[in-house]
Write a structure and sequence with these properties.
Elements (H helix, E strand, L loop, with lengths): L1 E6 L2 E6 L10 E5 L12 E7 L4 E12 L2 E12 L5 E4 L10 E5 L6 E7 L11 E7 L5 E5 L7 E4 L5 E7 L5 E6 L8 E7 L11 E3 L3 E6 L6 E6 L4 E7 L6 E6 L6 E7 L3 E5 L2 H14 L4 E6 L5 E8 L2 E9 L4 E7 L12 E7 L5 E7 L9 E5 L17 H6 L3 E5 L9 H5 L8 H15 L3 E11 L1 H12 L6 E5 L5 H11 L1 H9 L21 E6 L8 H12 L8 E6 L9 H18 L3
Parallel strand pairs: 29-30, 29-31, 31-32, 32-33, 33-34
Antiparallel strand pairs: 1-2, 2-3, 4-5, 5-6, 6-7, 8-9, 9-10, 10-11, 12-13, 13-14, 14-15, 16-17, 17-18, 18-19, 20-21, 21-22, 23-24, 24-25, 25-26, 27-28, 28-30
C-alpha cells in the first residue's frame, strides 16, 4: 500500500507492506525535498499504482514563465523493487506534463500523457500534444502532435485518443473535437459558451457506437447520462438522486463503463456498478452503519481491499479486508492520538430563512456539556461553490472540544443542491448570503441550543470573506470574527482573477453583487465593530496575501488598534490549502486564544 504518513512532524509518501502483522512504513519521498530532481521544492499531490511494482507519483511546483507565476505539474514512477525513480515525460515539457489520460493494464507498464511541449513558443501553452511513455525506462514518443487550441486530450479504455477540448478563459467558449476510432479525423461536437454553474456534457467514459457517459445539470440536479455523440442528444438518464447533485463518476478498471458514482446527501453515499464491490459496500453498510465505512482501494482481483472505517465524530482508521476469508485487519489510524475515540456528535439540521427558503446545515455539539444555551461558532464554508456534510471536520471537532456549538450552513450558492441553489449566489454576496448565516443563529437560539449573545463567526477563503463582512456589517449578531485567507476587497480580487482565471472565470466573482465595492468590507474599515482575527498564507495563489495586508493597513488608518480591535497572523509557508501540519496547528491555537479572550466557552 502507498500512503502519506506523518514522519517527524512532516508528511511523507511511504510504502507499507500488508503481509506482516505490524507493518513499518518505508518512506520514499517528502514534500519539497530534492527527491525527484536537483531543484527540489516539489509537492506530492497524488499517487497510484500502475502495476504491482510501479507507483505513479504526481507533483506540483511553482515557477515562472516569461515573468508570470505558473504551477508546474509532473509525474514520476517509483519502482518498489529497484527503489529507482524515473521521470515520465519531463523531457521537452513546458509547465504542464502531469495529465495522465491512460495507463496500460497488461504487458510493460505504459501511460499516455497530455502535455505542453517546450521549444515551440509561448503561444503553444494551450496547444497540447500526447506522448506515450514507458514507465520503467522513461522512453517517450509523440502519439498526437500539438493541435491549435486543444488544451486537454482524452483516451478510451484501449488507449486510443478520442477527444480534445479547449476552453477560452476570455469568452467562456468550450470546444470539443471527437473521433469515433483511432486514426480517424476529429470533428467538432461541442462549441458553445459555458453557462455559469452548468458545464457542457463532455464525455467521461467512452462507450461503443459513439456513445459516452456524461454528467449534466440540464434538469437542475447533476445526473449521470448516456449520450449519443453523433447527435449530441441524451439517450437516457443512468443515475440521479432527487434533491442532490451527483458529485463524481469513476470508470471501472478497464475504463469501459461506470465503476462508482458518488453523491453527497447529508453524508457521502457511493453506488457501485461493479457487482462485486456493490456487494461488499452493502456488507460494510450493514456492519458499520451507512456512511461509516468505505472502500478506499482494491486490487484488480477484488480479493484484497483497503477500507476506511470512521464516523462524522470519529477520525477512525484503515483496515485490510480479505474477501476470500472475510478477515479484517487494522493497518493504521487516521490520527494516532485520536484513534477510534468517539468525539463530538454531528448531525444535519434544517432551518427556515426569513425569506422562506430551507437550508441544510451541519451541527456539531460539545460532548461534555448540556446542549442548552451554548456559545456558538458560525462557520461558513469556502467557495462559495462548495458545501459541508456530515464528515469528520478538522476545525469543527476541536472547536466543539473547546465547548462550542458549531454550525456549518449550506447557504444559497452552496454546491450539491442543484443549479438553481448554486446560481442563487449571483448578486447575493455580502447580502442575502450573510442573512442566511444570521438566520442559523436565530434558529439555534429559538431551539434553546445556542446563546444568542455568545456567537462568533469563523471561515476560510469565501468563509473568510463572510467573517470579514460580518465584522463590518453584522456586528450586532456576533462578538468576534475569524477570517482565514479571506477576500476583503472584491474589485481588486476581480482584477486579480482576470489574470488568474481569465475574463470569463472572473465573471463568477464579478456577479457577486451589482456594485462590488459596496459589499467589500475593506472599503469600510471604520465600520468594523467587533474584534477580528485575520490569518493569511504568504504563498496563497488563489487569494493573494495582499487582500489581508491591505485590510490591516486600512484598519490601522481608520484608528483600529492591533491587539484590541484586530490581530494579524501571516504564515510564511502557508498556501490557500494549509498543506503543512504546523500551519494548521498554529492556526487553531491562535483561534483558541482569540476565542478565549472574546467569546470564552
Amino acid at each position: 500500500m502507498a500512503a502519506k504518513v506523518r514522519a517527524n512532524g512532516r508528511q511523507a509518501l511511504a510504502i507499507i507492506p500488508l503481509d506482516v502483522a505490524d507493518p513499518r512504513p518505508e518512506v520514499i519521498a517528502r514534500d519539497e525535498d530534492d527527491n525527484f530532481d536537483q531543484r527540489g521544492g516539489r509537492r506530492i499531490v497524488s499517487w497510484d499504482w500502475i502495476d504491482d511494482d510501479n507507483l505513479l507519483i504526481w507533483l506540483t511546483a511553482r515557477s515562472t514563465l516569461q515573468g508570470q507565476d505558473v504551477t508546474e505539474s509532473r509525474v514520476v514512477a517509483y519502482n518498489r523493487r529497484t527503489r529507482q525513480t524515473t521521470q515520465l515525460g519531463w523531457r521537452d515539457a513546458l509547465v504542464n506534463a502531469g495529465n495522465v489520460i491512460w495507463r496500460s493494464r497488461e504487458g510493460r507498464p505504459r501511460i499516455l500523457i497530455s502535455r505542453n511541449a517546450s521549444g515551440r513558443g509561448f503561444e503553444r501553452i494551450n496547444n497540447q500534444e500526447v506522448i506515450e511513455v514507458d514507465v520503467e525506462s522513461g522512453r517517450q514518443e509523440v502519439v498526437i502532435s500539438p493541435q491549435r487550441g486543444i488544451q486537454n486530450w482524452y483516451a478510451d479504455g484501449a488507449g486510443n485518443v478520442r477527444l480534445g477540448t479547449s476552453f477560452d478563459p476570455q469568452t467562456g467558449v468550450v470546444t470539443a473535437r471527437y473521433r469515433s476510432e483511432a486514426g480517424g479525423n476529429f470533428r467538432t461536437i461541442i462549441s458553445e459558451r459555458m453557462q455559469r454553474y452548468r458545464d457542457p456534457p463532455v464525455p467521461i467514459i467512452f462507450l461503443p457506437n459513439d456513445r459516452a457517459i456524461v454528467l449534466s445539470r440540464h434538469e437542475n440536479f447533476s445526473g449521470v447520462y448516456e449520450m449519443d455523440l453523433n447527435r449530441m442528444e441524451f439517450v437516457r438518464r443512468v443515475y440521479g438522486v432527487d434533491g442532490y447533485d451527483v458529485a463524481d463518476v469513476t470508470p471501472n478498471v478497464d475504463r469501459t463503463g461506470i465503476g462508482r458514482i458518488s453523491v453527497v446527501e447529508d453524508r457521502l453515499r457511493q453506488h457501485y456498478e461493479e457487482p462485486r464491490l456493490r456487494e461488499i459496500q452493502q456488507i460494510l453498510d450493514e456492519t458499520y452503519g451507512p456512511g461509516n465505512a468505505f472502500i478506499v482501494s482494491a486490487d484488480r482481483a477484488r480479493e484484497k481491499l483497503i477500507i476506511r472505517v470512521g464516523a462524522p465524530n470519529q477520525a477512525g482508521g484503515f483496515y485490510l479486508y480479505e474477501t476470500e476469508t472475510g478477515n479484517l485487519r487494522h493497518i493504521g489510524w487516521v490520527n494516532t492520538e485520536l484513534r477510534d475515540m468517539p468525539l463530538n456528535p454531528v448531525r444535519t439540521i434544517r432551518y427556515r430563512t426569513t425569506d422562506g427558503k430551507t437550508i441544510a446545515a451541519v451541527l456539531t455539539l460539545p460532548r461534555r456539556r448540556e446542549h442548552r444555551n451554548l456559545p456558538l461558532i458560525v462557520m461558513p464554508h469556502g467557495g462559495p461553490w462548495a458545501r459541508d456534510d456530515e464528515s469528520f471536520d478538522m476545525w469543527a471537532q476541536p472547536l466543539a472540544e473547546m465547548g462550542y456549538a458549531v454550525v456549518q450552513p449550506n447557504f444559497r450558492g452552496s454546491s450539491g443542491y442543484g443549479y438553481e441553489w448554486e446560481a442563487a449566489s449571483d448578486g447575493n454576496w455580502g447580502l442575502r448570503m450573510q442573512d442566511d448565516l444570521v438566520d442559523a443563529i436565530s434558529h439555534l437560539a429559538n431551539e434553546g441550543i445556542a446563546d444568542r449573545g455568545r456567537v462568533c463567526i469563523m471561515g476560510w477563503s469565501y468563509g473568510g470573506y463572510a467573517a470579514s463582512r460580518a465584522a463590518q456589517r453584522d456586528g450586532q449578531h456576533y462578538r468576534c470574527a475569524i477570517s482565514g485567507a479571506g477576500v476583503h476587497d472584491l474589485p481588486t480580487m476581480v482584477a486579480y482573477d482576470r489574470d488568474y482565471l481569465g475574463r470569463h472565470g472572473s465573471q463568477y466573482l464579478g456577479s457577486a453583487a451589482s456594485r462590488l465595492a459596496e459589499v467589500s468590507p475593506a472599503r469600510f474599515p471604520q465600520q468594523y465593530s467587533i474584534p477580528i482575527l485575520i490569518v493569511h498564507g504568504a504563498r496563497d495563489e488563489r487569494v493573494p496575501v495582499a487582500q489581508s495586508r491591505d485590510l490591516v493597513a486600512r484598519l490601522r488608518n481608520a484608528g483600529k488598534v492591533e491587539g484590541r480591535d484586530f490581530v494579524y497572523l501571516e504564515q510564511p509557508r502557508n498556501t490557500h490549502n494549509l498543506p503543512l501540519e504546523e500551519d494548521r496547528v498554529q492556526f487553531i491555537e491562535a483561534v483558541q486564544r482569540f476565542l478565549a479572550e472574546h467569546n470564552p466557552a
